[in-house]
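Bug: token stream looks shifted between consecutive jobs. Job 1:
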Amino acid sequence: MLSILSTVAFTFMVYLTIGFSLAVLPGFVDIKLSYGAMLAGLAISVQYVATLLSRPHAGRMADARGPKRAVMTGLTMCAASGLLLLLAALVTRTPWLSLGLIVFARLALGCAESCVGTGAIAWGMGQVGHQHTARVISWNGVATYGALAAGAPLGVLLDHRFGFAAIGALTLLLALITLPLAQLKRATIMAAAERSPFRMVAARVMPYGIGLALGSIGFGCIATFITLFYAAHGWANAALALTIFGTVFVGVRFIFARTIPRFGGHRVAMLSLSVEAIGLIVLCLASGAMMAGIGAAIAGFGFSLVFPALGVEAVHRVPAHSRGSALGVYSVFMDVAMAVAGPLGGWVAGGMSYNAIYGFASLAAVAAVVLALVLQAQAMKERRQATHA
């Protein structure tokens, strides 16, 4: 639907700018500013901290002031991030100032990610109706990962040909072009109802968020350790495994998104998590690069629908006027999983091996299957009670 595409386009733009910096920023801080790998990693990580902390606020903004306002706030923060990156590139003779500007740019971009990511989904649901929630969430995910995949090589090309300043300049330009387009797009009608207490919304969404976190650990381990995993075995083409994972992930989102409203989020989540666990086990047992690639493909196939399947059930647990807050809380759990996967996987690899990382991640996916089964039973019980009431 054009209404969905015109809304998730804002998500695509923001994640495209996030992708610009992924492959370039660490080298700029490490080599150009001579601050070393540790501060280079910190410059990247600070964005995710900002995203994590601002997710709930973005959800409340979408509920209280409308998703259009949340998206426009995020686009404004994205423009500010681009301006700060441009300034950072122009003051490299004062390294501490350049690094400080980069940190503030990353903080602004993290807030932009949470505002636009949450606001675009809520806006899309308001445009096409909550019966299409699964499709909105699925297409928003396609926009997210597609933009990251396109943004990283484009950022490398920009840096190589025009320098780091071009990344800041293009980020600023894209945000300034997109802001008027968001302003022209029709806002959704706000539900005239008292907002549900945030604690109540969080309590209802939390079990589904825990399921999402357990299922996301495998993705986090693949994204973080697949290169080291291949290197430890002397295999080539680690990047190919990531490409396979991403390609299958996006393809499944496009082809199978309609299975969620047809069969229900719980069932799709359980099947998806089971398939993901199988893929992670294949990775754990891989004895060659081809087998590892197959494992990555199976894991990508399984993980693809976990977020929208559990997300549909999560937002249905709260009133319509609180679904922005629900999405904000729900998304936090994936942020937490991605943050935890690194140190947890590193600890497992240090004590055992890189193969063992994927074995433990498969156990987390199996635990998520059990949790989804419990949540389905609980939802069915509540429906029966409501029918007899």
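Job 2, same session, no restart:
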Amino acid sequence: MQTDVLIVGGGLSGLALADHLARQGRDFLLVEAQDRLGGRILTQEFSGGAFDLGPAWFWPGQPRMAALAERFQIPVFGQFSTGDLVYQEQNGTVQRGRGYASMEGSYRLAGGIGSVVHALAKGLDPVKIMTNKRLTSIDHSADNITAQVDQNGTAQIIKANWIVMAMPPRVIADTVSFEPALDAGQMQALQDTPTWMAGQAKIIAVYDQPHWRHAGLSGDAMSHQGPMVEIHDASPRQGGPYALFGFVGVPADARAQHKDEMMRLAVTQLTTMFGPEMANPMHLVLQDWATIPHIARPQDRQPVRSHPRYGLPSNLRALSARGMIFASTETAPEFGGFLEGALEAAEHAASTLALHDPMQT
């Protein structure tokens, strides 16, 4: 199999790059290791409502996300923040009206962030998209790229002029072999780049009524007891069902070992913080990103506590001379880690490829 540009990774960055190339009429092939597109974006439906189990927000001053929403006519709405906040002390004591709405002013998309993934994928030729294909090796010793991908133990060779790795740098370092091998500095640069949100887990509790709103609460909460340490309203733009979601503060290994107990404690926590009506959610869902090897590696199991300084190191940027481009959100210099960063990375990759487009020279 042969193509001009091989895109590895069907998350937002990879799909956005494929969209750029498709509109330019340029030949490409996109392969994705998982059985679905979206990467860290995952929107699922429960009782007729769409809920984000991955990223849920973008912000003013992030023009690429706003432009995509406008292009695909996806309604944008503000994060619900009307009402009091709730604060839980380490001893379990609950206070009302303390703290601040950390996500107030952020934007969400009707139908969830997955609506952007769906819209981008819908506009692409399905023949050019292949799922369940994991990149295992890259030979860049000649004038072109020879990539090997694996599907359930069966290897396939794809030859390309360019390969764009729209996947977390640590996943590349741990799972892809290079011939000739990358030097120690390049491998270290890949390993040193934290995968944003890869160590995180979210719990979503879905209800037929917004009980917290009826009680004059915004759904925003902070807790020093847990298991959820930060909680927000995750309800759809209009109508029900309604939901709260929380970032889990329990370490990844403990989450895996004590899942049932953790979920029981999560319901107890919601009841303690928001009222007895919260005791029986229609759905209670855990999405643990640390368990997905195509996204999180062992060193990601400790989530980052502050936003890393992202951007593509110069020694990795230099590999574009060998036909290799890195384009996950972690490579974006301005919005690294955000949805906007994935689009920024795709934009930079498209610009690099445009400089070498044989149709433009």
